[in-house]
Every structure is written in C-alpha cells, then in structure tokens.
Amino acid sequence: MRTHTLILDGFLSRPRRWEPLRRAVESRVGPAEIFRYDSSGMPKFESLAIKLIDRIRAIDQPVNLIGFSMGGLVIRTACLLAPDLPVRRAAFLNTPHGGSILAWLAPLGGIRQLRPGSELLHKLRVQPWTIPTLVVWNPLDTAVIPPRNTRWKTGYASEAVCTVPIHVWPIFSTKIREQIICFIDSDGSPDRLIG
Fold first, then answer.
1. How far from each other are the two terminal CA atoms of the chain, in whole angstroms?
2. Cα–Cα separations (whole angstroms), residue 83 to 13, 26, 186
3. Under DSSP, is residue 153 helix (H, G, I), strand (E, B) or coil?
4. Is the separation of the CB atoms in 162 and 137 below 8 Å?
5. Looking at the whole model, is its pTM more than 0.70?
6. Cα–Cα distance, 48 to 94 (Å, whole number)
7. How many CA atoms does the CB half-sphere of 47 hold within 13 Å?
8. 41 conformational bin, left if phi > 0, alpha if psi -120 to 50, beta if neither
9. Which helix (H) or strand (E) holds 148?
10. What is the CA radius of gyration of the chain?
11. CB distance 118 to 142 below 8 Å
C-alpha cells in the first residue's frame, strides 16, 4: 500500500505553490494532498490541529506529514493532542519550533502562541517525539527571529540546512524537494543537505 502524504503551508498560505512537491510525492510515494486550514494566524493551534487530526483519522492509514513554517507547528500540536496518530514520517521546513519575536507584532490568537516562551511552545518542547523526522532549518532565516528557532533537536530527527536567507526557499528548492521525497519514501535517514 502506498503511503498518503499531507502537506501544510504556513502563515497566509498560498497552496498552489506546493503543487510541484505534491505532484512529485504523488508520483513517487503515494497519494498526496495539500491540507487547507485557516492560516490567518487568528485561530489557536489547538483548533487547527483538531481539523488535521480528523483528516488523518479519515484517511485511516499511516501518513507522512510535511509542514512549512506555521504548518509544522500545526502538525506538532496535532501529535501533542493525539499522540496515537498514525504518522509514519514528518518533515518540517523552516518551522519556528522555538517561536519568533516577530509574533509580538500581531495580537492574533494563533500568532500569540508563536511568541517565544508561550504555553503552547513549552508543551511542544517537552512533548515526547518518536516519529522519524526531517528538520530543514535556516540559520539565516529572515522571518523567524532568531533564525536558530527553526532548528529542532530531537533524537528522531535528521537535519538539513538551508543557507539561502529566504524563508520560503524550501518551497522552491529542487534540492530540498528531492531530499524530502527521498526521506518520506525510505526507511533510512537523509544525508545532510545544503539547500
């Protein structure tokens, strides 16, 4: 059976930009869809996560999850609320695992949860994590401040480094796209990548 993959965009998503990755995943790994959710920053992550949980349960088989920026935290929140979710592999692309000080600029419910030290980020920090994971992080990220907050060290994660100082670069990089596909399509760990 081929594995189903869900792709989650980030803040103020533009799903069409994920079509090249979606098509590539579908041709090499199995069914793939862009999971659409309210990415306005207004809803809290818990409500977004519940919708993702419902979709994963409706698929009724193990899934791969790919989350860009805020979408990665929706994935992690879903796994926090439902630790029994059948997630086979996860990939996080420039996700603000440690939050971003830019979140102090907007008083929206979900954006407030992105502030470093928020209750949600604390819960995610101490959450047990055993899902094989690829973390694409950017030491020069221009949207997550400080950029090191896109890094997430967990015993089940392999890292890929993106050194292009553009937050959305993983969406368009063919090298990173190939690494994601190889990671979700295998049982091994990816090699280190400079994207």
1. 31
2. 26, 26, 23
3. coil
4. yes
5. yes
6. 19
7. 11
8. left
9. none
10. 15
11. no
